[in-house]
Amino acid sequence: MDERSPLRHLDAFAAIVGRENVLTDPEKLRDYGHDEFSLRDIARDPEVVLKPSSAAEVAAVLKLANGLHLPIVPRGGATGLCGGVVPSPGSVVLSVERMNRVLEIDPVNMMSVVEAGVTLRQFEDAVEEAGFYFPPHPGEESAMMGGMIATNAGGSRAVKYGVLRNYVRGLEVVTGTGEILNLGGKLIKSSTGYNLLHLMIGSEGTLGIVTRAVIQFLTKPALTRSLVIPFVGVDAAIETVPRLLRRVVPVALEFIPLDVLRITAEHLHKSWPCGQGDTHLFVILDASSEEEMDRLSESVAEEAVGSGALDVFIADTARKQEDVLAVRSKIYEAIKAETIEILDISVPRSEIAGHVKFVRDLGERNGIWLPTFGHAGDGNVHTHVMRVRREAGRSVPLSEAEWRDKFERVREEIIADGVARGGVISGEHGIGLVKKRHFAATVPPAQLELMRAIKRAFDPNGILNPGKIFDG
To answer: Fewer CB within 10 A of the terminal residue: the chain, N end or C end?
Structure first.
């Protein structure tokens, strides 16, 4: 057995987390070798999985691993899309699944204290039961808070309410040397030294392992309403966005091709309320009264129709809202089987239409379907690179040789176009394993070296999630 194999240290791990929380069975390990990225080419089974129950146990594991130079890969719900929790060679996966308690709901400070393994669904339920509201909703409700913090998860509501970074007020984090840091707290403001709290958010487990978090929540809005606005052409839809934003601040403002909406509605055995045009804006509003909601809805409708919208459908009943929200939230599920990768490029809002047109033309030139939609309100554009082409309104499968030949080429061109428009390669999914080559090619060398220096300060032996974001 290799001297550096984690299998040589099972007794030491068991002394920390308990024998029953050390997994070595190959069948069980397979579940910990991947995330939701579709290509299993990158999957790798770990040699050992540990399931600690406290920050003290995490710290003890990291002190041991640091001394042995054993790589540790932290893992939450594994709902990511870029290989961020794929084990590196000879690594130990440290799963926070047992650290799953909502420790406090504090209505006075409007903050909660949660462990890293609490799921989004579990957290939302606890907050709603107390009569409050947590706006960020990245989509997958089995995602765990530690992983969401590690990737600075976003979602469609970011245009009004921001991303997870805007709600994380405190963190308990364990560094690569096993030190427990307590950063921030139940505070709204702090100008006290370097902001290590925000440095941790979005660091993808490469600087420390989140074990506990203080998360802010808000007062629940009295009313919400969804509007569907059809346009002919993505240009007309996107050009309407800045005009709408000058009049209202919606909870969500998205653009979605009609063909994708129809496929999703059929998948769910539901109907989409409007069949006009080819690109729809999907708007969610919230308000404190019926009068305010009607005023906001009228402003949106007036601006949209004046900008060329074919109609404005208002989901003004609970049933209608449930139907349109269900279709919007299940798009990925509906086309997942044919998806190779979901890109999440973020560009200035003014560049969305040009980028989408570039992607559409690229797909036509290469004979591959590249459905593109996303958050028009914040510039985060999602292109699905597919294993099919579209022909007469239906999907025609490509052979593996065909899509593999096209995949890397179209991905490179989409990324290059997004960056050339002043964008970045990830707005919410993170870099992980899948995007690190593109990240290194699009970030100035001096900036990359600063990141490496920060990594060395928190993790001098490089044991935390090695090979993610960048090498070295």
So the answer is: N
